[in-house]
Amino acid sequence: MQPIASMPPETARSVRFAFCDIDDTLTTAGRLPGAAYQALEDLDRAGIAVVPVTGRPAGWCDMIARVWPVAGVVGENGAFYYAYDRQARRMIRSFHPDVAPYISDSNRFDRIIDRIRAEVPGAALSADQSFRIADLAVDFCEDVPRLADQDIARIKQIFMEEGAIAKISSIHVNGWFGNYDKLSMTRQFAMERLQIRIDERNAECIFVGDSPNDAPMFTFFANACGVANVCDFADQMTVTPKWVAQSAGGSGFREIVSHLLEAHEKG
Asked: Of 11, 27, 181, 248, which shows the fewest CB atoms inside 10 Å?
């Protein structure tokens, strides 16, 4: 990982699309600081489309797409995207095709929940679970005392033993049924809402993240960025972002955006 300050000005000036995680990327200690939200506003005003790509639930994503200065939001680790058409006053909701066969089964996570409760004391369902459509989020540090690394790994293993896909974020282990991830729905969002193919316009994109569930994005985007706390997970990831901020969380996001916009202003 190279310091974001060393990203060449011509690389920074080429960015037209900014994808970003939310928890511990935009937020700091569970709160969205003003500097990070201002960075979103600044990107929007500069004509750079902003798309949060998060593990957070559908209920949150409806609000984010409607209220934040963003082009849309990819939620629940790629299960869907929401985009608000301000002219038509209409929320556009598009789900990954692999989601539909599973969400009608409201009991699909019951065995996983029972096993996690029995095998990993201290783990809890995320407080935002009731706002979710496609996945199960298990809290290991947001509203409970932080679990040991081996317990977090065990939660992920239980998901996998039950045939689910599981990813570890900075606060939750998220699990779901269906073959999708953050990147697959980001690709779909870009084609349908931004009218671009990110495979062809990779150099015009950045992604900013912080944890192992961002790995598909770090792998794909040539100019993937991490806030400083991504370094806490370096030994858990097979791929890391190319660029990294000096600061953590929302301050790191502000640092990355400032570098991009300074290059745009000078260009």
From this structure: 11
Query: Which residue carries 């699309």 as its tokens?
Result: 17
Structure-block tokens of residue 200: 């062809």
Backbone dihedral angles phi then psi of residue 71, each to the nearest 5 degrees? -80, -20
Amino acid, res. 62: D
- For 87-193, strand residue ranges (E) read 90-95, 124-125, 136-139, 165-168, 172-176
The pTM score is 0.95
Tell me the C-alpha distance between 26 and 226, whole Å.
11
Q: CA 163 to CA 105: how far, in whole Å? A: 15
Summarize pLDDT for 188-240 with one digit per residue, the tens: 999 999 999 999 999 999 999 999 889 999 999 999 999 999 999 988 888 99
Residue among 95, 104, 63 at smallest CA distance from 185:
95
Token reading at 253: 């996001």
Nearest to 133 by CA among 75, 180, 173, 193: 75
The b/e string for 164-198 (b: 16+ C-beta within 10 A; e otherwise) is bbbbbbbbbbbbbbbebbbbebbbbbbeebbebeb
Q: What are phi and psi of 173, to 5 degrees?
A: -105, 120
